[in-house]
Amino acid sequence: MARPAGRETPAPGSRGSSSALAYTRRVTRDPRPPTAPPPGAAPGAGEPATLDPAGAEPGVSATVGADPHALEPGAAAGGGPVIEARGLVKRYGARAAVDGLDLQVEAGEVFGFLGPNGAGKTTTVRMLLGLARPTGGSGRVLGKRLGDPAARRRIGYLPENVQFPAWFTGLGFLRYHGALYGLPRRLVAQRAGEALERLGLAGRGNDRLHAYSHGMLQRLGLAQALLARPRLIFLDEPTSALDPGGRRDVRDLLDELRRDGTTVFLNSHLLSEVERTCDRVAIVLDGKTRYLGPTRPDQIAPRELHVRLSDAPADVDAVLRGLARVTRRDGGRLLLELDGAAPGRGPTAHAGARRASPAPAATGTVASVEVAPDDITPDDITPEVARRLVAAGARLHELTPVRRELEDLFLELTGAPAPAGSGRGRPAR
Amino acid sequence: MSVLTIAGATLREAWSRRLVLALVILSLAFLGLYLYGAHLLNVRLLERAQHVGATGGSRGGSLDLARRQMELFGMYVVDFLASFMAIFAGVGAIAGELEDHSLQLVLAKPVRRWQVIAGKALGSGVVSVAYATSLALALLGFSRLVLGVGAPGTLPGILLMDLGVLVLSGLTLLASSVTHTLTAGVAMVMAYAMAWTGGVLHALGSLTNIDVLAALGRDTRFVVPSDALWKAGSYYLQSPVMRAQEGPNPLFGVTAPSAGFLVFAVLYLLAAFVAAGVVFQRRDL
Known about the structure:
The structure holds two protein chains of two kinds. By secondary structure, chain A is an alpha+beta fold.
């Protein structure tokens, strides 16, 4: 994507007034003391907030210039979650496409929404946008009820597999969607030109869309999603038609949006993309949220421990009962699987779900341990394992949580077989 | 504002997809064929009249009747073309755009669903009525030049024909809001055929004095009033002498439409648009 010459990178927490599509804003800091940022919030999201009539987000006092459709005060800009779903249900006859889904997305997050085909992702997005009516549960988007047109003024959306009307020109298409947002014609023309330039389509605006490649259409779809300076943008597989360079450009775009404080709801099958771009992720399966948490391996709770011991007790499993069990032994090394550290659940939720099987005598040293305690959080497990082993007379040389990547987590949850040669889990670096 | 934006896009689509161009070219071909046929008819009948020593221009004479029937038949084809244009131009208005997900893109904007229906109705209605009216005026104008005859009630005739086309346009929008493009298209062709069949049954019942058949055909207009509206329009396109000479027939109306039926037709049209809005409002996209 072409970047405007001389573009400056806005400071973290600023409202990105220097980007090509940036708002025309006067940004002033609020003198009130800062508050703690929400989990996964972008830098700056937890800074002091002052809402002006234009409805800026937390962290800044902003006046939106030449933008007649900024949200009213309190419309999601008041510090509450940008997306909130409680027990969302969508049934088609007897089949539940979404079955009690819970979700909370905070302002400024780049949020990944993952799941296998048929998990209910698209249906969820459609309900959040008001395109489909929930059968049960409740939800709010930008502080408004689902489908409220006032919220949709500040929502951008790019669905997957959309076929753009081929008879439009690129500029005509953007003008049309800008008009649907209710933006003044002059502002639409200005933003459409900027968007085309930002998405690398400068000079192609007067071409009809039938002359656009698939990748160009995807860029144009992104451009229309950005026209209204959205507070929240839903992107469904935004890089599926793009080459590696295009994907990098979209990553850069998402970074810019994050810096601008825009909340991004990213629906993608490309786990590596999600891992690289998203602050938090939800993994859905059978219409339910099975995991809601951080994206990066160093933030995902470990499920296994590598342990290297000498003078190990005869029955390590007995020593670690309720915490972990030995699943593999290699000389002096044990691999312990932590009881209850199954993905997507807290340890309490899985307590007792996986009882330790009779363990081999720990004559060697390293083990991988599985953990499932009733009353110990994942953060407590590693020191507790160390304490018990040492108390049982072992000399502990190494104890390393095995980090899981998003792909490991996804495959565990969805029950998909791991790719051949993939080592699930990696020792923490 | 969104209504006009969507209606404008519908009009631009008709123009940009070269629908208008195709309509103009094919309609000119139709007009050319019709006018050449009318010219041949006129010339041959004049030759015969001169051969037998009759005058060709006598008002109410057999030659005049043949000319007017030719003109009326041309208008029947105009109504036929405009009806199918309204069906095929509108059948994908909602269903087609839902199938390619472009309408979801529109409805993710601050646009209400009734505005989409209203915009589509306005856009496709304008296209259909503009086509029907311009083609009808062209045919009547050229007929006057070639045949030397004119329809007596041009304005009410064309307005009622336009109302019939609008009814089909509204029904098409409703069908497009309910089901898939192909299904909606098939349903609308069937609806047109049912209305036409009702008109034929009514004429046959009247000709044969079988009251129940005539009533069956007549009452079909309350299901799909498009054919009855054409008949109403064609009534005004004929002179009283012409209507008296023709008698009941399956193509043209020979009795004036009642005010009650015209009110019903207008309400029917509004109901079709409202029903499309209600159905679309409740539909999961």
